[in-house]
Amino acid sequence: MKNDKKGLNTICTHIGELEDKEYKGAVSPLYMSTSYQFEDVAVKRYPRYFNTPNQEALSKKLAALEHAEAAMIFGSGMAAISTALMTFLQAGDHVVLQQTIYGGTYHFAVSQFERFGIEYSFTTGWEVEDFEKEIKPNTKVLYLETPSNPLLTITDVKGVANLAKKKGILSMIDNTFASPVNQNPIDFGIDVVVHSATKYMGGHSDICAGVVAASEEHMKKVWQTGICFGGSLSDYTVWLLERSLKTMVLRVKAQNENAMKMAKYLSESKDVDNVYYPGLEKHPGYALAKSQMKGFGGMLSFELNPEIDASLFFKELKLIKPSMSLAGIESTVLSPTQTSHALMSAEDRAKQGIKDSLIRFSLGIEEVEDLIADIEQAIAKVKSMTVTA
Ligand code: PLP
């Protein structure tokens, strides 16, 4: 089916379907071949060329979801991000990266760029002016992430895209936290969108994948680098990802709703110090988020009162899982200091405002009343332990 401005659920369900011509099955057949005929064929297919039937079909769905001309699927979010950055950067170039980005992307920049002769600067904040201040004559890429991980800062997507255009620089965004359901950066002029599809796209905590989406012209370049780095995704996982994407809109909308209710509950709780959620009117990025997002997302962060030990709190949760990663249909919490941002120095974490007591909360699709009850019983238990001790 062609995407001539179909609704989101229709795109998720039907765009890029492979027809089962032989048996007329309802879902796309899975083609596991790693070897395809080379004679008398229009396309030379090979999994590492990102062009097997399943890879090619799913790419169409992903491009449609991000309002892009083309997309590619990778073996992880970091495979997508590193391939995309290395496509548009070379020795002698400079890249400006937002200060508050996913810890793995930060680690990639600080551990790898110097070896390749690529200069980089981190912004000191997340405003458009913070990006502008860092631009040098050799800057080739502006890299942003909004809402950011883990403090949910909001950056003006159109502002950064316009700045990049004015200076003749490429703009690239990590749209993982928002998902294409809540935010479409290409509509605001962003050149390249990257995703950890391990998160909302997969949505069930059982797929590791990544996506790059952009114009045909940019994607041709990403493809050239991608086939050298070899970070494509196996067809079986591509097929599973297609299955997951069919319900993405339903899941993400339920997660948005739960996050909003949970953020309101936590902000009113006397046991909680700070809540970071762009859907709360008191969040500094609220107005901007409202103008550029269709939903505020399923992620929030919070800090418990200092007298409540966060590590004991994690242990007492019965329903909410203290676990790595995010965006699954089950609710999870983690400590960024111990996990996603562990590779960052304590000093750099402090610069970003990431306290050791910060708890990142990924809302699932459970009834929010059950999640609140779990939090209340865990806090009560920790408090009783502290009193006894
Ligand atoms: N971007 C964001 C915002 C993430 O949260 C993550 C992973 O947690 C990544 C990128 C990297 O994705 P992956 O773990 O699939 O390589």
Task: Describe what you observe in this structure.
This protein is α/β, with parallel strands linked by helices. It has 14 helices and twelve strands. The strands form two sheets. It has a seven-stranded mixed sheet with strand order 1-7-6-5-4-2-3, with helices on both faces. Helix 4 links the parallel strand 2 (94-97) and strand 3. Helix 2 (53-65) packs parallel to helix 9, helix 3 (77-88) crosses helix 8 and helix 12 (310-316) packs across helix 14. The radius of gyration is 21 Å and the shape is globular. The termini are far apart. Residues 76-78, 102, 104, 149, 174, 176-177, 196, 198, 208, 210, 325, 340 line the site of pyridoxal-5'-phosphate (PLP).
Q: Could you spell the SSE succession in H and E letters?
A: HHEHEHEHEHEHEEHHHEHEHEEHEH
N-C termini distance: 64 Å
Name the overall outline. Answer: globular
Gyration radius (Cα, Å) is: 21 Å
> How are the strands of the biggest sheet laid out side by side?
1-7-6-5-4-2-3
Average pLDDT figure? 95
Low-confidence stretches: none
Structural class, judged by helices and strands?
Answer: alpha/beta
What is bound: which ligands?
pyridoxal-5'-phosphate
**Approximately what portion of the residues adopt beta-strand conformation?**
5-15%
Percent helix, as a range, is 25-40%
**Most strands sheet:** 7 strands, mixed
The number of helical segments is 14
In total, how many beta strands? 12
